Amino acid sequence: MFGAYAIEPPEIPEYGPAPAPTLEELPGSAGVGTGGLSDASDDEELPGAASDGADEEPAVDGLGLGVYVPLEDTTPLRGFYDALRKLDRGEDEDGKVRVLIYGGSHTEADVYTTYLRSYLQHRFGDGGLGFVSLVRTNRWYGQFALAVESSKGWMTEHAQRSKARDDGYYGLLGASVYTTKVHEYGRVTPRERAPTTDGKTTYELLFLRQPRGGSFSVTVGEQRVGTVDTRGKKYEAGYFSVTRDKGPELVEVRPKWKSSSKSKSSAKSSAKSSKRARSTGEIRLFGMVVENENDGVVVDTLGISGTRAANHLKWDEPMWTDQVKRRDPALYILAYGVNEASDTDVPISHYRETLKATLERFKRAAPEASCLLIGPSDYHRKSADGEFRPVPRTQQIRDTQREVAAELGCGFWDTIAFMGGVGAMDVWANAEPQLGKADHIHMTKRGYLRIGMGLTDAIMDGYDHGEFADEGDAPAGDSTDAKVDANVDAGDGANADDEASASAASADERP
Known about the structure:
Rossmann fold, 2 domains, 6-stranded antiparallel sheet, 5-stranded parallel sheet, 20 strands
């Protein structure tokens, strides 16, 4: 009965004035609430923060928004379901089921991804926090469970940035950070709400090995655990791992200058030495993966504000593939489309071809993994009369994604349909509590969390109904007992967009 929603979204229902319940009352997967969400009063940290764009009209009940929309075909997720069942039976080879989620600013915010991560880990085990950048890729970067700090001497490069080198050495995330200065640092600190383990935690750092590369020190907790020399005969992915008791702990990296073994007696030599001490060979980092020794699910949030699916085609494929294979995902998800909807100079036929080429890269890198496309959310722009209206190209992008997904064997989830259909963003932006930002592009934390609930429902519906299960297999855990405590509070858990919101962003780096 719900499949029709993905083709002809239902009319947006009318609601009366909203009461003041908390989001705990909002149903999550299998009717479970979030486990706690205080007022998201700090949503100014997210892109499109200004709230004065919302009309003063009778409020729609934001807690009632969102329509159940299933995946249009669960067959592409058969491998993912099988992996979960093996994990539940203790038959998974390394005890981990990994999910890679790529996207733009919606994904980088790490809110809907946090709900999916929390839900899967409560049902199937907590395998760790997954991927995080060691340095802020933009000034708002951070993750729900991990705070990221860094000095100002790092430069971020990714394919959407016009000033980035076009060598494609961007790593698993698709964004690298580099410096040649020794006084810089990158620091990842667990937030108080980060889940902990009494067992062991492994931290694997990803970096570029290159000729004339520099060195950096690694500190975990209060102990310096090693120095990494990134020099190599050729350009390739490098890895450095350390395993510690309990965790997660603070991880800090600092470029390191190696002094010469030769004595420097003259003043001239001392001056040169002093200058060299302020610089080093280039350190280029791709990020870090945090996993514990427990069997369970790991979800990697791999969002970069302002990016498009076609950016993947500019990444060095062998290097990226090496890192994807190392992650060994059971499922990869691509959540792009809003930025492409603004690219009116790009024919839809060209968009179709680049999307297919991007998915074919994934299939070469992870041929056994399941594939899912998340369609763009409803996207509005302010017209000449000052009113926000839907961007028609968004629907073309959505329809193209649906067709390409079916052609290449990927699942598809229709975010616009989930929101209530074309035009729903205006309702979300004017709801009480507010689910959409005043810019009519981004969501509030509550809005992203709601999307996470709908997406999780859609992904797990086929699993919970035993699709593709062998006789005698039962769904792991009771979905009604999967207490999800996402704890998306009014603090600093969600992240903002890139250097500017859509109204002020540069043409090559829109959010």
